[in-house]
Records
---
Amino acid sequence: MAATISCSFSPYSSLDTKKNKSLYYTNTHLFKSHHKLSKSSNPYLLLHKSNHHNSTFHICSTSSQSSPESYLDDPPPKTSIFLTAPELDKYQILKNYQYVHEFEHGSLFVRVMEDDEMDITVGLLSESFAESMMLPMKYVNVLGFLIKQYMVERRSLLPNTAFLVGFYRGKDGEEEELAGTVEVSFNKKGSNTNPPSPTPPKDSPYICNMTVKKLLRRKGIGWHLLKASEELIPQMRNSSREVYLHCRMIDAAPFSMYTKAGYNIVKTDSILVLFLLQRRKHLMCKQLPFYNNPSSESDTSSSEDYPLNELPL
């Protein structure tokens, strides 16, 4: 499996705060904790590498003077943006969003990632990528450096895109831990610069970068990360209910889950992508229904905990 690395830059517009009733806002430290992860001296050590990952990824990164080995020590830079009143309303939706599901074996709590949770999320994604790409684990720090640059850039696009994180606590008294993550883009402003092929519509919601911690798979967590994403999208959009994602052709279990969740194939990669050292992929689409509480759906934990879809990092 090959990793495609590309560079992009997302400029900010400098608007006068007195014009168009726009509001000046600093997007770091945006979200206050509603459900904090238990701290340790080194949270990264809590992460486990994952396998069965079904994705290649496209990393969009900016230049940095930091070394790959020190990516966990570098906090995301503070960036300032101007928010219109509708954008501020969407920020509030993201800030307050919560998805809770009770299993027989434990509980899952999903919400928008906070700034101080970026490093453990980067660690989970980088170890998942290293495993899926069959890379030695010594490359985890290199992947982590690139993934963090991508996530910092994507976070600057709030509220047009968001990273969700899921925390799991078992019934037998284990400490709460990061169980999985997923990225959702809601509109054209939040779309990826270089999405995987086949290319989804830029103005439609898109789910990507989803993975579940290796030791917590086959518990239904992946299914509910998907459902949490689908529940959030209608709250962030008033128009299109079509949501897209990618699935590699070789990944039978995730494909079965997607079809079970209501996704249909829209387009499939040409065989020519094999010459680019990429796996052929399906672009899948679902028309989101109007429902109020998908977290109450039945627990389907037989095959839904694989890393789920194409990751365009």
---
Amino acid sequence: MRAFYTDHFVLPLPSGHRFPMRKYSDLRARVLSDVPQVALCEAPRADDEALLLAHAPGYVEAVSSGELDLARQREIGFPWSPEMVERSRRSAGATMAACEAAMADGIAANLAGGTHHAYADKGGGFCVFNDAAIAARWMQHRSGRAPADFAVAIIDLDVHQGNGTASILRDDPSIFTLSVHGEKNYPFRKEASDLDIGLHDGCGDEDYLQALTGALDILAGRFKPQLIIYLAGADPHEGDRLGRLKLTMRGLAQRDQEVFDFAYQRRIPIAVTMAGGYGNNIDDTVAVHAQTIALAARHAQRWAARAATPILHLPSA
């Protein structure tokens, strides 16, 4: 299984900033140590052509040229820097690359990504460019088919609703957006996904997994994707300082396995992104993400045992 990383592109954040930048390098080290069957690959850089599939030209230009005003920088949560631009492009590129790898291998991962609060014309919630929306449309473009003939499902299990993704893709029937999130958590103004499941504060393993099973059943009844993009947030964990849910490590493993089983039973390739995680102990967040990658690697073995031929030959770039 291939996993794409961006952790060596580091934002120069002020001292005491609450974004856990270190988790990405810690995760790559953990995967290298504990899941050696994963092939680690440097993420490519998303160019303007890709970004413009989901974002307004004026916004892409403002980010790229350093012309974001202070209000929009505050909404994102990062001060503008060249490193912010490079990392954000690489994070989107990593999800694009993971999608392409998944089409060949059944599953692949981005060791970052899940930047679902970015809208077409603005960022928010530590998200600059919306990697899932970009990658979904990029894969439709790369497939050589009409969008309606290459359907993509985005399964967003970050604890926060994927408001930016829902907004960008609201009128796009070829991409299904599913979000299972804390109902009273950020963002406090939700957008309408194709399917939203809002959970109560303190929700634990049993209630969460019951809600997820129901959501996946609805997805299966409404939509037949050729690709799944899965946002495997670590922030539903009981030790997350922003999550307000109470999932255990075991519950999160069951969550991931249910999504992987859903994809495998229907022979749908799946690209995994890490999304959020803000543990009181950063090692807990890294452990949740590493568990997801370990389970993904087992899922990859199922695909490898099933077939040695690619699912879809994409045209060369």
---
Amino acid sequence: MEAPLIAVVTGANRGIGRAICAALVQQLPGPLVLYAASRAGASPDLDNLTIPPTVSIRPAQLSLTDQASISALSARIQNENKGCDVLINNAGIYHFQENITAAQRQETLDVNYRGTLNICQAFLPIMHKGGRIVNISSQSGQLKYFHPRLQARFLHPDLKFSELNDLVDGYLRSAEQHNATASGWPPLAYFTSKAALNSATRILARENPHLLINCCCPGWVGTSLGAQAGQPPKSVEQGARIPLRLAIGEIEQISGRYWANDSVASVGYGKVQDW
């Protein structure tokens, strides 16, 4: 009997996360054990799908700011399956305004960057050789929004996590002193959180050559998060295409890169892009 693919999707209860779960159920040719993780820990609504008997969907409680829940999920999957094949880090938060509180700014970095990194690090010991990690980023993390001095620091080929954390902490200090934009940072904390995630993806890939670890922009998608910036041109199903390709599709053993379409409205399956 063929061994099942063990997959984890965070933020699985709605939006792109739910669409990724649905696509995995529909498109994966072999058996699948899918851990659908969300803060509520409820199973995603896939009632409109016929679930094959080879698919097991297991709801899981997970909060990106709760290390205990991260560790518990990793331990559960190791105990139940002796490892993991695919981790899709979809969960995130977006405060679409410049004048947010210090608590909201901290939350943005703690969820989108630190929380996602904590999940990656908790799962690295249980990832099977050749496994894949997909971090959902954004075009907002592109370095064109940052001063060249900051760009060079984010892109340093030997960047260490301690240095990346110092960079993020420096942003937070500048924001608290109300001089972040004057210091070359973009006006929204979300942009910095996703640039940090892109850099973290590069470091993780460099340190774990036995895995394929990439990040991507799914495009401007019709979710409650995406709708904060206007009327999104893409459906959640279209937004799931690039993450799904990085998780189970052909990517020619590419790792540590940022994938996107040429525009946030494009419905393609993505390609490697500079960020």
